[in-house]
Amino acid sequence: GYACVGRVKEIGKKVGREWKNRLVFSFQPHTSHFFSKTDFLYPIPQSVSPENACFLPNMETAVNLVQDGAPILGERVLVLGQGVIGLLTASLLNEFPLENLTVVDSIERRRNALDIENQKSNVKSIAPNDLQPSTFDLVFELTGSPTALNTAIEHTAFSGRIVIGSWYGQKRAEIDLGGAFHRSRIRLVSSQVSTIPPELSGRWDKSRRFEVAWQALKRIQPQKWVTHRFSLNDAVKAYQLLDEHPQETIQIMFTYS
Protein backbone atom coordinates (compact mmCIF):
# COMPACT_ATOMS: atom_id res chain seq x y z
CA GLY A 1 0.00 0.00 0.00
CA TYR A 2 2.87 2.42 -0.56
CA ALA A 3 2.23 3.45 -4.18
CA CYS A 4 0.25 6.68 -4.17
CA VAL A 5 -0.44 9.07 -7.06
CA GLY A 6 -2.18 12.39 -6.60
CA ARG A 7 -2.07 16.13 -7.07
CA VAL A 8 -0.50 18.68 -4.72
CA LYS A 9 -3.44 20.73 -3.43
CA GLU A 10 -1.75 23.06 -0.94
CA ILE A 11 1.83 24.17 -0.33
CA GLY A 12 3.69 25.68 2.60
CA LYS A 13 5.20 29.15 2.63
CA LYS A 14 8.71 27.86 1.91
CA VAL A 15 7.67 25.62 -0.98
CA GLY A 16 8.08 26.81 -4.57
CA ARG A 17 4.82 27.63 -6.31
CA GLU A 18 5.69 25.25 -9.14
CA TRP A 19 4.59 22.44 -6.82
CA LYS A 20 0.99 23.67 -6.61
CA ASN A 21 -1.35 21.33 -8.55
CA ARG A 22 1.58 19.20 -9.71
CA LEU A 23 0.83 15.51 -10.32
CA VAL A 24 3.19 13.45 -8.19
CA PHE A 25 4.02 9.96 -7.01
CA SER A 26 4.86 9.23 -3.39
CA PHE A 27 5.51 6.18 -1.22
CA GLN A 28 2.52 6.55 1.10
CA PRO A 29 -0.07 4.31 2.78
CA HIS A 30 -3.56 3.93 1.36
CA THR A 31 -4.96 7.38 2.06
CA SER A 32 -6.88 10.12 0.29
CA HIS A 33 -4.73 12.98 1.68
CA PHE A 34 -1.30 13.26 3.26
CA PHE A 35 1.32 15.82 4.28
CA SER A 36 4.79 15.43 2.79
CA LYS A 37 8.08 17.18 2.24
CA THR A 38 8.88 17.76 -1.42
CA ASP A 39 11.91 15.47 -0.97
CA PHE A 40 9.46 12.56 -0.90
CA LEU A 41 7.44 13.60 -3.95
CA TYR A 42 8.32 12.48 -7.47
CA PRO A 43 6.89 14.61 -10.29
CA ILE A 44 5.21 12.41 -12.89
CA PRO A 45 6.33 12.98 -16.50
CA GLN A 46 3.56 14.37 -18.70
CA SER A 47 3.78 11.33 -20.96
CA VAL A 48 2.96 8.94 -18.07
CA SER A 49 -0.69 8.53 -17.04
CA PRO A 50 -1.60 8.52 -13.32
CA GLU A 51 -2.51 4.82 -13.44
CA ASN A 52 0.75 3.89 -15.16
CA ALA A 53 2.60 5.96 -12.55
CA CYS A 54 1.12 3.77 -9.81
CA PHE A 55 3.33 0.97 -11.15
CA LEU A 56 6.56 2.90 -10.54
CA PRO A 57 7.71 0.82 -7.53
CA ASN A 58 6.93 -2.44 -9.31
CA MET A 59 8.67 -1.28 -12.47
CA GLU A 60 11.73 -0.24 -10.47
CA THR A 61 11.71 -3.74 -8.98
CA ALA A 62 11.52 -5.28 -12.46
CA VAL A 63 14.40 -3.09 -13.66
CA ASN A 64 16.45 -4.20 -10.66
CA LEU A 65 15.65 -7.86 -11.35
CA VAL A 66 16.75 -7.60 -14.97
CA GLN A 67 19.93 -5.78 -13.97
CA ASP A 68 20.72 -8.52 -11.45
CA GLY A 69 20.03 -11.20 -14.03
CA ALA A 70 22.10 -9.44 -16.72
CA PRO A 71 20.66 -11.36 -19.70
CA ILE A 72 23.09 -12.06 -22.53
CA LEU A 73 22.50 -12.02 -26.29
CA GLY A 74 20.98 -15.32 -27.38
CA GLU A 75 20.19 -16.69 -23.93
CA ARG A 76 17.23 -18.90 -23.05
CA VAL A 77 15.29 -17.30 -20.20
CA LEU A 78 12.52 -18.59 -17.94
CA VAL A 79 10.25 -16.45 -15.73
CA LEU A 80 8.32 -18.30 -13.03
CA GLY A 81 5.32 -16.26 -11.90
CA GLN A 82 3.23 -13.80 -13.89
CA GLY A 83 1.88 -11.53 -11.22
CA VAL A 84 2.54 -7.84 -11.79
CA ILE A 85 6.27 -8.14 -11.04
CA GLY A 86 6.56 -11.14 -13.35
CA LEU A 87 4.65 -9.41 -16.14
CA LEU A 88 6.80 -6.30 -15.92
CA THR A 89 10.00 -8.34 -15.79
CA ALA A 90 8.95 -10.44 -18.78
CA SER A 91 8.03 -7.30 -20.71
CA LEU A 92 11.50 -5.86 -20.12
CA LEU A 93 13.17 -9.15 -21.02
CA ASN A 94 11.16 -9.28 -24.23
CA GLU A 95 13.07 -6.18 -25.35
CA PHE A 96 16.34 -8.17 -25.29
CA PRO A 97 17.61 -10.25 -28.25
CA LEU A 98 17.09 -13.58 -26.48
CA GLU A 99 16.90 -16.97 -28.15
CA ASN A 100 13.61 -17.53 -26.36
CA LEU A 101 11.61 -16.37 -23.36
CA THR A 102 9.24 -18.69 -21.48
CA VAL A 103 6.82 -17.45 -18.82
CA VAL A 104 4.94 -19.72 -16.42
CA ASP A 105 1.93 -19.20 -14.16
CA SER A 106 -0.83 -21.41 -12.80
CA ILE A 107 -3.53 -18.76 -13.37
CA GLU A 108 -4.80 -18.55 -16.94
CA ARG A 109 -5.65 -14.85 -16.79
CA ARG A 110 -2.07 -14.02 -15.85
CA ARG A 111 -0.65 -16.29 -18.53
CA ASN A 112 -2.70 -14.44 -21.14
CA ALA A 113 -1.92 -10.97 -19.79
CA LEU A 114 1.43 -10.65 -21.51
CA ASP A 115 -0.39 -10.28 -24.82
CA ILE A 116 1.78 -12.77 -26.67
CA GLU A 117 0.30 -11.77 -30.04
CA ASN A 118 2.03 -8.41 -29.79
CA GLN A 119 5.27 -9.83 -28.45
CA LYS A 120 8.12 -11.44 -30.31
CA SER A 121 7.45 -14.89 -31.72
CA ASN A 122 10.02 -16.44 -29.38
CA VAL A 123 7.87 -15.77 -26.28
CA LYS A 124 5.94 -18.73 -24.87
CA SER A 125 3.41 -18.59 -22.02
CA ILE A 126 2.53 -21.91 -20.35
CA ALA A 127 1.04 -23.52 -17.25
CA PRO A 128 3.44 -25.17 -14.75
CA ASN A 129 2.33 -28.68 -15.75
CA ASP A 130 3.19 -27.92 -19.38
CA LEU A 131 6.80 -27.00 -18.62
CA GLN A 132 8.76 -29.64 -20.51
CA PRO A 133 12.16 -31.01 -19.45
CA SER A 134 14.53 -28.33 -20.67
CA THR A 135 17.22 -26.07 -19.35
CA PHE A 136 17.58 -22.31 -19.33
CA ASP A 137 20.58 -20.04 -18.98
CA LEU A 138 18.73 -17.63 -16.73
CA VAL A 139 15.69 -18.21 -14.50
CA PHE A 140 13.69 -15.64 -12.52
CA GLU A 141 11.77 -17.01 -9.53
CA LEU A 142 8.91 -14.54 -8.97
CA THR A 143 6.07 -16.74 -7.73
CA GLY A 144 6.30 -15.87 -4.04
CA SER A 145 6.36 -19.61 -3.27
CA PRO A 146 9.69 -21.03 -2.05
CA THR A 147 8.84 -24.47 -3.46
CA ALA A 148 9.19 -22.92 -6.92
CA LEU A 149 12.94 -22.82 -6.29
CA ASN A 150 12.97 -26.57 -6.93
CA THR A 151 11.37 -25.96 -10.33
CA ALA A 152 13.91 -23.24 -11.03
CA ILE A 153 16.83 -25.50 -10.13
CA GLU A 154 15.43 -28.36 -12.19
CA HIS A 155 15.28 -26.19 -15.30
CA THR A 156 18.56 -24.27 -14.97
CA ALA A 157 21.43 -25.25 -17.24
CA PHE A 158 25.01 -25.95 -16.16
CA SER A 159 26.54 -22.81 -14.61
CA GLY A 160 23.24 -21.00 -15.11
CA ARG A 161 21.84 -18.50 -12.67
CA ILE A 162 18.60 -18.12 -10.76
CA VAL A 163 17.48 -14.65 -9.73
CA ILE A 164 15.28 -14.85 -6.64
CA GLY A 165 12.95 -11.88 -6.58
CA SER A 166 10.21 -13.42 -4.45
CA TRP A 167 9.52 -12.29 -0.90
CA TYR A 168 8.98 -15.49 1.09
CA GLY A 169 8.44 -13.97 4.53
CA GLN A 170 7.78 -16.78 7.01
CA LYS A 171 7.10 -19.40 4.32
CA ARG A 172 9.21 -22.55 4.57
CA ALA A 173 9.86 -25.31 2.05
CA GLU A 174 12.24 -28.19 1.43
CA ILE A 175 14.68 -27.18 -1.30
CA ASP A 176 16.67 -29.86 -3.11
CA LEU A 177 20.27 -28.65 -3.12
CA GLY A 178 21.59 -32.14 -3.75
CA GLY A 179 23.14 -33.69 -6.84
CA ALA A 180 21.84 -31.68 -9.77
CA PHE A 181 22.20 -28.31 -8.07
CA HIS A 182 25.68 -29.05 -6.74
CA ARG A 183 27.06 -30.62 -9.91
CA SER A 184 25.62 -27.96 -12.18
CA ARG A 185 27.38 -25.03 -10.48
CA ILE A 186 24.10 -23.11 -10.44
CA ARG A 187 24.35 -19.60 -9.01
CA LEU A 188 21.56 -18.19 -6.83
CA VAL A 189 21.21 -14.41 -6.96
CA SER A 190 19.31 -12.58 -4.22
CA SER A 191 17.62 -9.53 -5.76
CA GLN A 192 16.20 -6.69 -3.65
CA VAL A 193 15.19 -3.27 -4.92
CA SER A 194 16.00 -1.29 -1.77
CA THR A 195 19.66 -1.09 -2.81
CA ILE A 196 21.68 -0.76 -6.02
CA PRO A 197 23.56 -3.93 -7.05
CA PRO A 198 27.15 -3.54 -5.77
CA GLU A 199 28.64 -4.04 -9.23
CA LEU A 200 26.59 -1.07 -10.51
CA SER A 201 26.80 1.23 -7.49
CA GLY A 202 29.80 3.14 -8.84
CA ARG A 203 27.74 4.36 -11.81
CA TRP A 204 24.11 3.93 -10.81
CA ASP A 205 21.97 5.49 -8.10
CA LYS A 206 18.26 5.50 -7.30
CA SER A 207 17.62 8.56 -9.46
CA ARG A 208 19.11 6.94 -12.54
CA ARG A 209 17.16 3.74 -11.95
CA PHE A 210 13.95 5.73 -11.45
CA GLU A 211 14.49 7.42 -14.80
CA VAL A 212 14.87 4.04 -16.48
CA ALA A 213 11.66 2.91 -14.78
CA TRP A 214 9.75 6.01 -15.98
CA GLN A 215 10.87 5.36 -19.54
CA ALA A 216 9.85 1.70 -19.27
CA LEU A 217 6.39 2.71 -18.01
CA LYS A 218 5.94 4.81 -21.15
CA ARG A 219 6.77 1.85 -23.37
CA ILE A 220 4.96 -0.97 -21.56
CA GLN A 221 1.82 0.87 -20.36
CA PRO A 222 1.02 -1.51 -17.47
CA GLN A 223 -2.32 0.13 -16.66
CA LYS A 224 -3.80 -2.44 -19.07
CA TRP A 225 -3.35 -4.96 -16.23
CA VAL A 226 -5.63 -3.10 -13.82
CA THR A 227 -8.54 -5.51 -13.47
CA HIS A 228 -10.43 -3.88 -10.60
CA ARG A 229 -10.85 -0.45 -9.02
CA PHE A 230 -12.34 0.12 -5.57
CA SER A 231 -13.00 3.15 -3.43
CA LEU A 232 -11.06 3.14 -0.18
CA ASN A 233 -14.35 2.59 1.65
CA ASP A 234 -14.59 -0.76 -0.12
CA ALA A 235 -11.08 -1.87 0.83
CA VAL A 236 -12.44 -4.95 2.60
CA LYS A 237 -14.06 -6.12 -0.64
CA ALA A 238 -10.78 -5.62 -2.50
CA TYR A 239 -8.80 -7.72 -0.05
CA GLN A 240 -11.49 -10.40 0.02
CA LEU A 241 -11.29 -10.63 -3.75
CA LEU A 242 -7.52 -11.02 -3.62
CA ASP A 243 -7.74 -13.63 -0.90
CA GLU A 244 -10.68 -15.68 -2.13
CA HIS A 245 -10.58 -15.25 -5.92
CA PRO A 246 -6.99 -14.47 -6.97
CA GLN A 247 -7.64 -16.04 -10.37
CA GLU A 248 -9.95 -13.12 -11.22
CA THR A 249 -7.43 -10.36 -10.57
CA ILE A 250 -4.12 -9.04 -11.75
CA GLN A 251 -3.82 -5.52 -10.33
CA ILE A 252 -6.30 -3.82 -8.00
CA MET A 253 -6.28 -0.06 -7.42
CA PHE A 254 -7.96 2.21 -4.91
CA THR A 255 -9.47 5.41 -6.28
CA TYR A 256 -10.24 8.53 -4.27
CA SER A 257 -12.27 10.77 -6.57
Can you give a write-up of this model?
The protein has two domains: 3-55 and 226-255, no CATH class; 57-190, NAD(P)-binding Rossmann-like Domain (Rossmann fold). It is an alpha/beta fold and 257 residues long. Helix 2 crosses helix 3. It has a six-stranded parallel beta sheet with strand order 6-5-4-7-8-9, with helices on both faces. The radius of gyration is 20 Å and the shape is globular. It is built from eight helices and eleven strands.
CATH topology of the largest domain: Rossmann fold
- The first-to-last residue Cα distance is 18 Å
Which percent band covers the strand fraction?
15-25%
Number of strands: 11
Strand order of the largest sheet: 6-5-4-7-8-9
Radius of gyration: 20 Å
Task: Return the domain count.
Answer: 2
Q: Which structural class best describes the helix and strand composition?
A: alpha/beta
CATH superfamily of the largest domain: NAD(P)-binding Rossmann-like Domain
SSE order and pairing:
Elements: E1 3-7, E2 23-27, E3 42-43, H1 50-53, H2 56-69, E4 76-80, H3 84-93, E5 100-104, H4 108-113, E6 123-126, E7 136-141, H5 148-154, E8 156-164, H6 179-183, E9 187-190, H7 206-220, E10 226-231, H8 235-244, E11 251-255
Parallel strand pairs: 4-5, 4-7, 5-6, 7-8, 8-9, 10-11
Antiparallel strand pairs: 1-2, 2-3
Helix pairs in contact: 2-3, 2-7
